[in-house]
Amino acid sequence: MPSISLESAKSKLLAAQHEIIEMVPGELAISVFESDTSSLMSCRGEQKKWVGTGQVQLRPGLDRDDFLDGVKASFSDRSGWSAKDSKDNEGKRRVDLLHEDGTHLLVSFWDGPESLQIGSFSACFDFPEYEYGEEY
User: How far apart are CA 20 and CA 71, in angstroms?
Assistant: First the structure.
């Protein structure tokens, strides 16, 4: 697999995350948050990965299963992507999206306040100049 840069890994992750957020009907979204800076996490050896977060606070009315089915269907037919159902820490349904380059998004819902949550991790990339705690 060719070498990936921080910029390309982050861009790919944010594009996928933003696409999922855009699937929420506008009339049901109260607020949207997407992180655009983050510390890096360790990956293989000296490599790092960028970690993202997306959240949409929702009004009542979004069918969670239909939404997650739509996310899963949207990504499962794409080259390099796999999409599968899993469970979050509370045993609730979550959709895991994984690209063959290592880009990984976890899509689920939280209660109180009701919200769509996207946890995301970029593909691994070389970044030897990283200093712990710096955000990119």
Answer: 7
Distances, alpha carbon 65 to alpha carbons 4, 70, 118, in Å: 34, 8, 15
φ, ψ at 65 (rounded to 5°):
-65, -40
Say if residue 2's pLDDT is above 80: no
State CA 22 to chain mean position distance. Answer: 13
Asked if residue 111 has pLDDT above 70, the reply is yes
Peptide bond between residue 113 and the one before it cis (omega within 30 degrees of 0)? yes
Structure tokens belonging to residue 97 = 């999206």
Torsion sign (Cα): 126, 128, 134, 136: negative
Number of CB atoms found within 10 A of residue 103's CB: 24
CA nearest to 17, candidates 32, 34, 31, 4: 34
Distance separating alpha carbons of residues 100 and 105, to the nearest angstrom: 12
Q: Is residue 57 classed as helix, strand or coil in its secondary structure?
A: strand
Residue 41 has pLDDT above 70, yes or no: yes
Contact criterion met (CB below 8 Å) for 14 and 135: no
Query: What pLDDT score was predicted for residue 57?
Result: 98
